[in-house]
Specification:
Blueprint lengths: L3 E4 L23 H4 L2 E2 L6 E2 L2 H7 L8 E4 L3 E8 L9 E8 L7 H11 L2 E2 L6 E7 L2 E7 L6 H6 L10 H21 L2 E2 L8 E3 L5 E3 L6 E2 L8 E2 L2 E4 L5 H6 L1 E2 L1 H17 L15 H9 L2 H7 L10 H14 L10 H16 L5 H7 L16
Parallel strand pairs: 3-8
Antiparallel strand pairs: 1-15, 2-7, 4-5, 5-6, 6-9, 8-9, 10-13, 11-12, 14-16
Helix pairs in contact: 5-7, 5-11, 7-10, 8-9, 10-11
Bound molecules: adenosine-5'-diphosphate and magnesium ion (MG).
Length: about 375
């Protein structure tokens, strides 16, 4: 859940509804991306409200998995009796009647997520639309959101190991690259709470409420009212409402920094100079020694410092103030894959060994977090 805002500056000058797909599969070339598909629109199941009420035990508070700007998300059991271990587990997102979001965001999820299929996009199983009730039904993602793993507290939240962080970054990059190359979809709300993890920590992008069809070939951007989440949104978008495909790349850079530091993109509980994560830590990302001082203390120094530095460099590129200076998501994905490959090469493991000697390294940026 982030702090979402709406600024009714200028309204959209381009169509917000996606064009009809002309082919059944995408034309992307790399193996990772061709795993995606554009589905016919009739694959979604229509649920009744009564069915979803039963599946979630009348939306019982103890089935709540999370909450965002649209509403609460509940865990549910389909078909079989509630409590049965054999039932299909689902996640049901229900519009909160007090939310500023509504039919537009619901429609966007159905239109985009209902038609795009990729291993790194969460699967939308169906929906319910009855009078004022708007609900969406997704596959259940066992390990919840990346946000919860990075910032959650309590004994059930285990810190993510370095290799898992890299795997998550690669999965999320694949999902975003697929969106950008399949139908030029701009996701618009890339953040840790919208990256979900399955039982094996495969990352899947969810929450397509703000997704938008990208510009036509003759245009560089779409103009839209500014919506998104403070701390993640690209500066050109916040300033002008001009949304570029590379506005998403900026958000990806913010998440990379969150994964390195386990600090939130925006945190009002930090001193004011540190309120915005990227403004605060940018100078640290340029320097390998300085970087060490802002790394997540819960990694306990168990990460290859060379790889961490390369990720920091990549994050800086994604965070370039000028959208044109940012890499494409395909380029980001390639860089991450190269970093992972080097990580797996035993000849390049020496850095990691050195890093593990610094167990209990205490970062000056986590002054009160010993024993976290
Ligand atoms: N399919 C799912 N499986 C498990 N948890 C989910 C699922 N979908 C959402 N959640 C949880 O609910 C939170 C809010 O979901 P999200 O779709 O982002 O809602 P919103 O559109 O209101 O922002 C997520 O951050 C996550 O913790
Ligand atoms: Mg969300």
């Amino acid at each position: 859940m982030g702090i979402c805002w709406t600024c009714f500056s200028s309204s959209s000058s381009s169509s917000s509804s996606p064009h009809n797909p002309t082919s059944a599969t995408t034309t992307t070339t790399t193996g990772a991306l061709s795993a995606g598909q554009i589905l016919p629109t009739d694959t979604l199941r229509i649920f009744t409200f009564v069915e979803l009420k039963a599946a979630t035990r009348n939306f019982r508070p103890d089935t709540v998995l999370g909450e965002g700007g649209f509403g609460k998300v509940y865990k549910g059991w389909l078909d079989e009796k509630a409590n049965s271990k054999n039932g299909t587990i689902i996640a049901v997102k229900k519009l909160n009647s007090e939310s500023v979001q509504g039919i537009e965001e619901w429609q966007s999820e159905v239109t985009f997520l209902g038609r795009l299929s990729h291993p790194n996009l969460v699967k939308l199983l169906g929906y319910c639309l009855e009078e004022t009730e708007l609900l969406l039904v997704y596959e259940f993602m066992q390990k919840g959101s990346l946000e919860n793993h990075l910032f959650g507290r309590g004994s059930s939240v285990q810190p993510l190991l370095w290799d898992i962080r890299l795997k998550i970054a690669i999965g999320a990059a694949r999902g975003l690259a697929f969106l950008h190359t399949s139908e030029k979809v701009i996701y618009r709300d890339f953040k840790a709470s919208n990256i979900l993890l399955d039982g094996s920590y495969n990352a899947k992008i969810s929450d397509f409420g703000l997704a938008k069809l990208g510009p036509s070939a003759s245009q560089s951007h779409v103009t839209t009212r500014v919506m998104g989440t403070y701390g993640y949104a690209a500066p050109e978008y916040v300033a002008t409402g001009h949304l570029y495909v590379k506005s998403d790349v900026y958000g990806f850079g913010v998440v990379l920094v969150e994964m390195l530091t386990a600090q939130r993109a925006l945190d009002p509980t930090r001193p004011s100079a540190q309120l915005n994560l990227t403004d605060w830590v940018k100078p640290y990302l340029h320097d390998r020694r300085k970087l060490k001082s802002i790394m997540d203390s819960r990694l306990e120094g168990k990460y290859p410092s060379k790889a961490a530095f390369r990720i920091a460099q990549l994050a800086l590129k994604c965070l370039a103030p000028e959208h044109k200076q940012r890499p494409s998501m395909n380029e980001v994905l390639e860089s991450l894959e190269r970093i992972e490959a080097a990580n797996k090469d035993p000849k390049l493991q020496s850095n990691r060994t050195v890093a593990t000697r610094h167990v209990h390294h205490r970062s000056p940026l986590h002054p009160n977090q010993e024993g976290r």
